Amino acid sequence: MSNHLKDQSSPYLLQHAENPVDWYPWGDEAFKKAAREDKPVFLSIGYSTCHWCHVMAHESFENPEIAGILNQYFVSVKVDREERPDIDSVYMNVCQALTGSGGWPMSIFMTADQKPFFAGTYFPARARYGSIGFSDLLLAVAQQWKSSRSELLNSAKQILVQIQKQESEDSYFREASQDLPDLAASIFARSFDEAYGGFGPAPKFPTPHNLIFLLLYARIRQNKTSLKYAEVTLDRMRRGGIFDQIGYGFSRYSTDRYFLVPHFEKMLYDNALLILSYSAAYKASGSRELLDTAEKTAEYILREMTGTDGEFYSAQDADSSGEEGKYYVWSRREIFEILGEERGEQFCAYFGITEEGNFEGRNIPNLLNGKKLCDGFDREKKALYDYRKRREVLHLDDKVLTAWNSLMICGLSVLYRVTGKGCFLSAAEQAYRFIEGNLADGALLYVSCRNKVRSVKGFLDDYAYYTAALLCLYEASGRRFYLERAEQICGEARKQFEAEEGGYYLYGPHNSRLITRPKESYDGALPSGNSIMAYCLVRLSQLTGDSLHSVSDGNGHGQDAAECHKNIYRQAAKKQLRFMAKQAERHPAGYCMFLIAQLLYENPPQKITVVLSDEDRPEKILAGLPLYSDVKMYVNSVENGRKSKNVDNVNSVNNFSEGLSRYPHRGASETDFGKESADLQCFREADSCPSGYTLLNGKTTYYVCKNQTCFPPSNQIPE
Prior knowledge:
Layout: H1 11-15, E1 23-25, H2 28-37, E2 41-46, H3 51-61, H4 64-73, E3 75-80, H5 85-99, E4 106-110, E5 116-120, H6 134-147, H7 149-169, H8 179-191, H9 208-221, H10 224-239, E6 253-254, E7 262-263, E8 266-267, H11 268-285, H12 288-304, E9 315-316, E10 319-320, E11 323-324, H13 332-339, H14 341-351, H15 378-391, E12 396-397, E13 400-401, H16 402-419, H17 422-438, E14 440-441, E15 444-445, E16 448-450, E17 453-454, H18 460-477, H19 480-497, H20 529-543, H21 557-584, H22 592-602, E18 606-612, H23 618-624, E19 629-635, E20 645-647, H24 670-673, E21 683-688, E22 701-706, E23 709-710
Parallel strand pairs: 1-3, 2-3, 18-19
Antiparallel strand pairs: 2-4, 4-5, 6-7, 8-9, 9-12, 10-11, 13-16, 14-15, 16-17, 18-22, 19-20, 20-21, 22-23
């Protein structure tokens, strides 16, 4: 019989809709029932592809006896942490304060007014390995609620006071110090695993924003050691079992030191940030293997994690037939049966597949043997992939999250910038259009949707990540409406979430109020909303004064308005950097997205103005330019000396499979331009090239400015 979750849209909540536990979604109905019946609330927080969430569900929530205890003594509430990051954040702070750690499933016991008095994560159904059994825990809490309630209520009060005190202490400022990036780099140096890559002991998480920081730090500080740390780690992950060698894409993390045995669930956000990391590393090193990894990861996303309207799904499960990883592992016999004796032997030798196996008697294909990465087994991988698809359909969490889709837009936009392949930008722009059509209402955003049904109004992360996505689209395409939209979304974020004393709250006036109002600043598996806001404000301060607001009315007022606008963002960025510097001083390596923002603030990217000749295509030129640069492109008119037109950094990419379509020739009429796609029109609205920007020697010409110095025009691609 269904419980109160049956009408929810979250895949995670629907997984529990047929439990014998009388689950409620978070809301007034549950808490009023708890108050009316004088019962404590049991809050369970998780997500649909969480392995240990599945284990606890099978052991306890599907158990009629345990369900009976819950239904008799508690009001039980289920929360999808991906749909309600506000609830997850507040009670994760509680869990960490009480236990010293946290994770999912999160198990919270609290009063009807949402004040927690006990917390934990996974509990086995029956006592084992020194852990109390969940059924025993429930009975103990129920008994204490009846006989010693004052002690529980006093505990709840103390917990709340402690957390509120911590949040108030986090609101102080300090000036952003240039030594914070250096301190973070030294922390990574001390924890780097010289033998196997990555940082610290197992389990090893990709944490791509840390690698992106090291890449930027290496470029700005000319630090080859930091570049090595990032490159070695990315190479080991590509070779390990954490990367799906058959179907591509990265799993959540490695359970061992070697990046061999992963926790097999695949998350959209990890893959988005890793596409960005590998793309940036390729530009830093020139390694085609790194670029190949980025492209193969994007291939996986577009093949398996993309909906019919261009939206990106959230995750694929680790479990199949009740076993973690069963879908992904192989026996040597299976390989031979599918590929044949000769080719099977060659495949097994290349991918480290043995009779003994490397994972519970079976094999995770990998290249940790040091063999050269190559595409010599494409046909064999396709055969194994097709066979694997027939094994069992993995559970797909098909809800569409604004924040995570925004990250994938960023990843694909950067991948377009380094490859010039229009299919990646096309995919990013399709996701943008999905967000605008399904997850936005003017300047207001929503957290998620599923089957076109929206969930709750957005939180800080949704606005910050979407602003970053729009900036990435602007940098990739040159289309000014992305920059305008980024300003609008960022402005709404400041209106809803900005704290007068500094920083940004996780939730705002459009969200339900909780027992505390946190300002998340620490970067975990994902960069925090406050870190991303620092980045967005810095980049807006650097981008908005150039062309968007610089159209003069003939009296110079346009430039004044542009500079005023730029100063607003500069001041906001400086304030946010000061707030974040205070947070980061305790452990700078945990605030890498903020450190990226600080490095960019102190070392603005060089500005490159390109005047294209008719022999060159904008996407090809863009792919050859440094990633660490702000680029403008103009196409020269038929004759030198005539005004040039401002050109998008892309061709029309209507043909998704082929990627790129024809490039309109220099001197084409406005009528000819109109034949291009309305959404992906190649030329901008007749903006003229600034005076003095002309072709040199009749070839594509580069005008470069950096460190407040402009250099003579050149036909050589700047470094």
